[in-house]
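Morning. Coffee machine broken again, so started the prediction first thing and wrote up yesterday's gels while waiting. Chain of 354 residues, entered below exactly as on the submission form.
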Amino acid sequence: MSLILGIESSCDETAAAVVEDGFRVLSSEVASQIAKHAVHGGVVPELAAREHLKALTPVVSGALKQAGVTLKDISAVAVTQGPGLIPALLVGLNYAKGISQINGLPLVGVNHFLAHIYGAFLDSPPDVFADESLYPILALVVSGGHTSLMLIDKEGKAQQLGCTIDDAAGEALDKGAKLLNLGYPGGPVIQKVAAGGDPEKFRFPRPLTGGAGKPVAPENRYNFSFSGIKTALLYHSQKYPEMSGQLLADTVASYQAAVVDVLVRKTADARRTYGARTVVVAGGVACNAELRRRIAESVGNSARLMLAPPKYCTDNAAMVAGAGFHGFRRGRFIDLGADSFARLPRITEVDFVG
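Came back before lunch.
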């Protein structure tokens, strides 16, 4: 049995978790900074780093206590190495290095993007990846920092089919909410307000889908763009400066529908083209009820659908510990000189398959 302590600090959540053998979550603690950043309308990296410094020790202690273990029981420490906000990442990485050094524990660096995909498999049977009917897996990772489609085969080879060329979907939702003075974070409030509106009342653009009568360039077939939707909302808000009540609800519902429609269309196209037998949807925006409904409707019986549970959609350390277990069993450790990285590197394989 291997117990992995996971540590996550890539953005504005300080998290720690203990996961047994990659799948059984024994504890998952998260300290949110939403109230600290809400007054700024978005995450301030330096503020996030200071809050991580305050929260890491109690969060890690809480995760160990909840799991009923001590550091002497831990087999390795897994920590988010990137991508993310460098000031925030460095706090978690250096804290994990300290635990590793003091306790003589191996240290595993985890890619936050891949950890989100892995979050959909937590609490699964340990042999889940041995099932050949799972492949190929098409993963849609959609969050405040990423919107990307990745294909994974049974050998663990990975191919990034497309990504956002400007704003991520979560960023578009956050900025849309800010533009309409709805508050922060934008995703939950957008969903709440949209629930009372008509998603067909206003027609916002669906960039890079060919909906405007202009064919999509082959290189952009699976890429995403949300800046145009956001700009359309800006012009719409200028047309209706006193927006409230039903008008506001209809606007928000129509805006959300445009973002979701792009995600669903691109995913469906990739699923058909590559014959994906499993579709995974993960990341913070995967909590969105309308996206979950529409993607389930789109996939139907044509493939297995794995929607990450909401508790593993938003940033958490259980997904980090789970993914880190596979790096641990392969002996892929990092040393004390390892650094964080802000941008998503090119990914060609994943540790948890093959």
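The CA atoms of residues 133 and 277 lie 7 Å apart. Going to sketch it on the whiteboard this afternoon.
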